[in-house]
């Protein structure tokens, strides 16, 4: 390199917020969890956070669920983010190892895993995010009618998420 005009260091940070909700404020995506880009999990995790929260908010506004069900958002999505942080951390450590011996062992282990169809599929499901699908499914709302203190929308209009 002869003529470097700009340089910066890449530092890996793994962070998870203490709470996904504070009263009427909700955090999702990169505001709720930050991790290495290894494994390509960030965007999908944030999109699914938004979908789950949108479904819950729509159900609450439309009187399908009580407001207390908004706590399901953190109940479902925090474990998903924890799993992504662990996966991204492991992948980053494996990718950035400097020791020739550790790289050799890593490559050997990955080659052996590649020969086992069961383990290969488990890794593929983790990397794709499909193994976390249950953490994106809302339980069915209760059958009890929700008492509303004010109308959800003007008569004849239905609010949708």
Description:
- The strands form two sheets. Strands 1-4 form a two-stranded antiparallel ribbon. Strands 2-3 form a two-stranded antiparallel sheet.
- It is 45% helix and 5% strand.
- The radius of gyration is 21 Å and the shape is elongated.
- The mean pLDDT is 88.
- It is mainly alpha-helical.
What topology emerges from the helices and strands here?
Elements: E1 15-16, E2 21-22, E3 25-26, E4 33-34, H1 42-61, H2 72-95, H3 100-115, H4 117-128
Antiparallel strand pairs: 1-4, 2-3
Helix pairs in contact: 1-2
Based on CA atoms alone, the radius of gyration comes out at: 21 Å
Q: What is the overall number of helices?
A: 4
Strand order of the largest sheet: 1-4
- Describe the oligomeric state of these chains in a short phrase: single chain
Q: What is the percentage of strand-forming residues?
A: under 5%
Number of strands: 4
Tell me the major beta sheet.
Answer: 2 strands, antiparallel
Q: Give the low-confidence spans.
A: none
Task: Give the overall form.
Answer: elongated
**What gap, in angstroms, lies between the N and C termini?**
52 Å
* Helix proportion range: 40-55%
Mean pLDDT: 88
Helix/sheet category: mainly alpha
Write the H/E string, N to C: EEEEHHHH
């Amino acid at each position: 390199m002869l003529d470097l005009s700009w340089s910066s260091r890449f530092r890996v940070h793994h962070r998870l917020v203490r709470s996904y909700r504070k009263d009427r404020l909700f955090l999702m995506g990169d505001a709720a969890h930050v991790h290495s880009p290894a494994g390509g999990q960030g965007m999908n995790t944030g999109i699914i956070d938004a979908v789950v929260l949108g479904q819950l908010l729509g159900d609450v506004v439309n009187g399908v669920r009580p407001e207390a069900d908004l706590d399901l958002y953190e109940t479902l999505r925090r474990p998903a983010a924890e799993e992504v942080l662990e996966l991204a951390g492991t992948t980053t450590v494996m990718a950035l190892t400097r020791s020739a011996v550790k790289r050799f062992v890593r490559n050997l282990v990955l080659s052996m895993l590649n020969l086992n169809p069961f383990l290969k599929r488990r890794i593929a499901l983790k990397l794709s995010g499909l193994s976390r699908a249950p953490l994106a499914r809302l339980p069915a709302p209760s059958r009890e009618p929700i008492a509303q203190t004010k109308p959800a929308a003007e008569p004849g209009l239905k609010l949708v998420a």
